[in-house]
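With this grant's support, the team has encoded backbone shapes as discrete tokens. A representative record is reproduced below.
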Amino acid sequence: MKTVSVFSILPWPGSAGSVARAVLYRSALRALDGRTLLLAVAAVALLASCKKPPAAPAAAAPEVTVTTVAQQDTPVDFEFTAQTQSSREVEIRARVDGFLDKRMYVEGQVVKAGQTMFQMDKKPFEAALQTAMGQLAQQQARLEVAKANLARVQPLAAQNALSKKDLDDAVGNEKQAAAAVIAAKGDVEAAQLNLGYTTIKSPLLGLSSFARQQDGSYVTATANGLLTYVYQLDPMWVNFSISENEMLRYRDQIAAGRLKFPAGNDFVVQLILADGSEFAQEGHIDFANPAFNTETGTFLVRASFDNPKGVLRPGQFVRARVAGAIRPRSILVPQRAVLQGAKSHFVWVVDDQSKAHQRVVEVGDWHGDDWFISDGLKAGERIVVDGAIRVTADSQLKIIKVLAPGTGAASSAAGASDTATPPPAAQAQELPGPAPASGATQ
């Protein structure tokens, strides 16, 4: 049997090699028996597998933006959910029983101090006043008679022309008449007051509410005497609450030197309205309830705002931003520089050879687009800001931009998509008691 060398069927270079290879394969198939064919195919496969694949290009160093960690006194604001309240919320009530004749104001409009709001039926009270005045006149007449009688008795008693008893009776009658006159005067004044109460006026300048009683209704001072409300709009109060846990937490931070309040707790309060706009006037905290609410575990803090144009109305929900506190020598880094690991947050620290090393950090409160770092970083260290998610441990980095210390929040947002964790939800924070207190989120 004719044999064909196995090496004669190996691939040849070029197009001519392809044709020759095909011819040799056909010749080999005809010439070789089954066993030899298997050996030839195995040899070809073995030689083909020994061919080296092309070398992969070296991975390029990730391009990153870095910043230098710096310590600085950082002003912090605290935000609370708050609600407006009229500084004087007055109930307009009927002070006497009677029929309501007419409502004298436009519901929902501003009323002036002394403006008539309701008019009750005067006639029964005018009649009562006349009766009281008549009784006063009677008592005054009796007093005159008693005085005249006493004037006659005294000289006669001095001459022993009348008994001592007659003198005592005359003196007693005069005093009784005088007392009756005083009582009658009181009845007249009470009748005059009741008549005056039939004209119901606003005690202050403010915004009126709707009428609780309609014209013709019979009202009583005790059962259904509430007629409406008047709300003073200037100044306006804004109330918010601070929890006990927040109070204790911030006291600890103050004791540790990580938080500082302004002198005298003189905080400045700014309001953010429901549409996101800011109220033009600044407010100041003027009251903090020293007692905690036993049901909610919070205590009330109140700020006062000038409201000359009546923009604020009672019952509005707003955000109260309390400013004036600072965090001394704090470290603030952009949020996108902080990544979330399996058990903790970490950042990439860049050494002198531009290599990255993972560093576990303890994050604090949120501040704008930045995070306060409570532990894990020192001033002067460099960290990766943009491109952090593409960095691996001990990898060589290509630094394309260096941000100035403390400018992370204002820097380019190009690396925002590399953020490992979203910003934390705003956390309520608190500030201490009576001399202006406050608290909120950062």
Q: What stands out?
A: The chain has four domains: 6-49, 63-72+328-418, 78-86+233-327, 94-230. Residues 94-230 form a domain with the Helix Hairpins fold (CATH 1.10.287.470). The longest strand covers residues 71-93.
